[in-house]
């Protein structure tokens, strides 16, 4: 190779590496200022009934048992920390769990909606993931759609007598995939394509994010199973105190 | 541990009235998103950069690094907006793939640039708030805006616990690293799972202990904390008012045009 060719190759390598190392900081948070005002308001309004339900369920729980306050706060902090830690990933990029699937299985989806919006607000302010104007859209996809689906899948699987670990895996993974689909749809509805409208645009967004999000969903599923196995081995009293395992159930 | 949280305690704008900072950031953000004009985005980006770096004393390298964080998302999704797959090529460029074209129009490229700049300008508004205002001050603003007490209390506790749990998780993963716990994908998955489950157990124990401590100090369902008061300054309010009115005029002008 001549000197120039070598230089070109080196430059290309540096460029490729710099793209590889760019932290894919939880790519499914829609960033600040990316959605037009209309859709910010629409998605925010869609969240309100879920948030109200969550708020009242938390308040009623606190009336019964005040101790639940610190437990809820700890759970919120737990979801935040889990979603801010780097997880092992296949592609080498830096990725994070959503943690809300785990939350929905352990606690309840309506409580997770309130904890989720708080966690998303903290993520926006402290970690610069997501944003304030897109808080509504992000809450809908990550703290409402994903957790509710996870919860439904988990209980459906239990009803159908599927193996517990498989059902936990499916719940967490499908919750993650659903979050990613909803986010793509939100982006597509805000920016319909010039040829083919919302549907074509949705397909494009799904395609662009698929390489990072699908492996991530599988890893999130695996991790959730491992975490729950760990908890069932060491933390039966704690699991009872948050209501994940009822008194009479014996495993 | 959380860099933004650490930096905002060093900021020289920290002792400015929190309500002023909050109002400024929110209004500017709103105008940015509503108008979506290039001129406005560049202006807001510059003003917020000067405020945060010059006035606030945040190192420029840090600020730049944080502005670049959302870039991966920005590039990927803007590409998805700009590039189309269609049978008919558009005017900017067209790469034929079989009977289809990977193509884009000048209008959509302009729109893409507009989106990127608007997003960066809005991020700079968010950063102005988070680099210069400690979380407890933001919470006191929320309280003044009549956010339900229960939520504010929950947020205060969560904010406190985050650092506690991050500390525990840091020491656990350090010792896992020391014992080759992240050797390959399989071991690192197992280590992460073990760490997360121990984290939840520790969190529950701590929360019990904390509640007992609160109860022993006559907790009756409300957390009462004293706040430091930094009264608003007239000069700052006038400047903010002046700037926001200017932005409002710019927004209206860009909508009429």
Summary, kept brief:
The complex is a heterodimer of chains A (251) and B (257). Chain A is mostly helical and 251 residues long.
What does this structure look like?
The complex is a heterodimer of chains A (251) and B (257). Chain A is an all-alpha fold and 251 residues long. Chain A has nine helices and no strands. About 4% of the residues of chain A have low confidence. By secondary structure, chain B is mostly helical. In chain B, strands 1-3-2 form a three-stranded antiparallel beta sheet. In chain B, strand 2 and strand 3 form a beta hairpin. Chain B is flat, with a radius of gyration of 24 Å. Chains A and B meet through helix 2, helix 3, helix 5 and helix 8 of A and helix 2, helix 5, strand 1, helix 6 and helix 8 of B.
Rg of chain B (CA only): 24 Å
The low-pLDDT segments of chain B are none
**Strand sequence of the main sheet of chain B, in spatial order?**
1-3-2
End-to-end distance of chain B, in Å? Answer: 47 Å
Alpha-beta content class of chain A: mainly alpha
Largest sheet geometry of chain B: 3 strands, antiparallel
Any key phrases for this structure?
heterodimer, A: 251 residues, mainly alpha, 9 helices, B: 257 residues, 2 domains, 3-stranded antiparallel β-sheet, 10 helices, flat
Secondary-structure blueprint of this entry?
The complex is a heterodimer of chains A (251) and B (257).
Chain A: H1 3-21, H2 37-64, H3 68-84, H4 100-106, H5 109-127, H6 135-159, H7 164-190, H8 197-234, H9 236-241
Chain B: H1 3-10, H2 18-35, H3 38-55, H4 60-68, H5 71-82, E1 84-86, E2 93-97, E3 100-104, H6 106-132, H7 135-144, H8 149-178, H9 185-216, H10 234-256
